[in-house]
Design brief:
The protein is an alpha+beta fold and 460 residues long. It is built from twelve helices and 16 strands. The strands form five sheets. A six-stranded mixed beta sheet has the order 9-10-11-12-13-14, sandwiched between helices. It has a four-stranded mixed beta sheet with strand order 3-2-6-7. The chain has a two-stranded antiparallel sheet with strand order 1-4. Helix 6 crosses helix 7, helix 8 crosses helix 10 and helix 11 crosses helix 12. The radius of gyration is 30 Å and the shape is globular.
Length: 460
């Protein structure tokens, strides 16, 4: 089709107009956390409901591109529904338009499959059907598990069930839980569902529907690894623990921990440890262990002695500040009796010292000095102290970069295992900040322990 041209203008009458060239703006993308909402639902009626439970993922951006952004969409809105009955998922994707703004168009399906894997269903209709077809999913999974503890009340009926990977259906269940582990556990990586040394401990609640049929829902779980300990024992290490968001802050995490402590003692394992515990879990764990430790005579006697030494005189007048640590015999008694390892016991030890101060204000300055001195030695190292181990590089023709000898140094030789920049101007400030945080943590735990003691006295 031809175009109608305007009559030629006299070039002498007006100057030529410059043609304007437009450039399309580069697509800045949208962060995944800003366009994705994830809901955990237990019935088809909750899908799309305004009061559905929205979960807060650790970091969705990790699953999208290198910079955590989604490109090529205008008005993008992704709503994801996750069933707490079968742990299937469905994603509702809506947008106004798509265009390549220089960064391509993100493949949303493959990106979401990285998170949800095979649990992601294709249609909403299929997802809604799972609430009826998969109603007994958890019940069938736990049928061959070992019931460790049952706790019934007027409002709930819960039990903890142990399932060994490779010997039960723990593997298939955990495979469905991996998306929630990725989304809710910071820095988590999936366990090996083929390794029989892994054990799942499931916190399950028994429910009854309107027809009177019984079904089970999963409230939370923890994954533990069982290590061999020479010559005839084992060690348990907690690797992951997750209480599903709708059931958090109701005491379920503490209940699981108490069951695990019972397992460790009843099966006489060597010790029970936790792999890189998050601050909140460590707080709960220490509260629980302090209450357990206070029942041991050896611990009470050791604490009384330490408190007596602390309150005997002003520490600032002494040439060196004592650490007031428990003896090796007490540490070993704690491990044998309660399966609490040395590191965790020492976390509880300072809480015991604080609880023994009376009046606390009178001795608080000295107590903080002991905590500060201990943290300085642990984090920076002693300027001079007792002997330890040192690693010295030695020449070798076999893998030179990996050649070394280890020996025990004599008293007075440097043994610090942490190298720090002594010229760092704010080193003391950073240490003081860590000390302040630790003292506040001790106070918080001590307050909760005292409240628990008071409630026991009042109820007796």
């Amino acid at each position: 089709m031809g175009q109608k041209k305007a009559p030629a203008a006299d070039d002498t009458l007006e100057p030529k107009k410059r043609r304007r060239v437009g450039f399309s703006s580069v697509d800045a993308g949208v962060e995944a956390k800003d366009c994705i909402k994830i809901y955990l639902v237990s019935s088809k009626e909750e899908v799309g409901a305004s009061n559905s439970f929205c979960i807060d993922p650790v970091d969705l951006n990790n699953f999208f591109e290198e910079d955590g952004k989604i490109y090529g969409y205008k008005g993008l809105k992704i709503t994801i529904w996750v069933s707490s009955i079968s742990f299937d998922a469905y994603a509702d994707i809506a947008f106004e338009s798509t265009a390549d703004g220089g960064k391509g168009i993100t493949d949303l399906k493959s990106a979401l499959e990285k998170v949800f894997g095979e649990t992601l269903v294709d249609s909403q209709e299929q997802f809604l059907q799972t609430f009826s077809t998969q109603r007994n999913f958890i019940r069938s999974i736990i049928s061959n598990g070992e019931v460790l503890q049952h706790k019934a009340s007027s409002t709930s009926d819960v039990e903890v069930i142990r399932m060994v990977v490779g010997k039960t259906a723990a593997g298939p269940l955990y495979s469905r839980l991996i998306p929630l582990v990725f989304l809710l556990v910071d820095g988590a990586s999936p366990i090996d569902v083929l390794d029989p040394s892994w054990e799942l401990y499931l916190l399950v609640e028994k429910k009854t529907d309107e027809q009177g049929d019984i079904y089970n829902i999963l409230l939370g779980f923890t994954a533990l690894y069982r290590f061999y300990h020479y010559p005839d024992s084992s060690r348990l290490r907690l690797s992951q623990i997750l209480v599903l968001p709708p059931y958090q802050h109701k005491g379920y995490g503490r209940y699981i921990l108490e069951v695990l402590n019972h397992v460790a003692v009843s099966e006489d394992i060597y010790d029970f440890t936790v792999e890189e515990p998050l601050d909140y879990f460590q707080h709960v764990r220490t509260c629980v262990d302090v209450l357990r430790l206070q029942k041991l005579d050896s611990v009470r006697n050791a604490v009384n002695l330490a408190v007596s030494n602390l309150t005997r005189g002003k520490l600032s007048k002494k040439t060196s500040i004592p650490r007031l640590m428990p003896t090796t015999r007490v540490i070993e008694d704690v491990r044998k009796s309660l399966k609490i390892n040395k590191k965790q016991f020492l976390q509880c030890w300072e809480v015991f010292i604080y609880l023994g101060l009376d009046p606390v204000d009178k001795y608080m300055e000295d107590f903080v000095s002991i905590v500060s001195n201990r943290m300085k030695e642990d984090l920076i190292g002693k300027e001079s102290g007792t002997g330890g181990k040192q690693v010295i590089e030695v020449p070798s023709e076999y893998i030179p970069e990996m050649s070394f000898v280890m020996f025990k140094s004599n008293a007075g030789e440097a043994t610090s295992t942490v190298q720090v920049d002594e010229n760092q101007p704010n080193q003391e400030e950073q240490l003081q900040q860590l000390v302040d945080e630790r003292v506040n943590e001790i106070k918080s735990i001590a307050e909760k322990v005292s409240q628990h003691r008071t409630s026991i006295v009042e109820s007796s």
